Input
Amino acid sequence: MVVHPGAGVQSGTLANAIRVHFEFEQSAISDQQSELRVGIVHRLDKDTSGLIVVAKTDEIHEELSEQFRERPCP
Output
């Protein structure tokens, strides 16, 4: 599944699904980075397995983003 709209893909993305899921709770999802990346704290490259973290508030989004930036690299 494509994570956010771009590169010719505008629908059927995780970001679209998140927006639809929270459409009745307008303040229930962070749009700190942009409306196209609602709540998505980081990204995964294509064909990469892993976990996607979605933040519900701007405050938590910033805290989680900072933790990803500051994590020790192997």
About this structure: The chain has a mean pLDDT of 80. Helices lie at 14-21, 58-70.
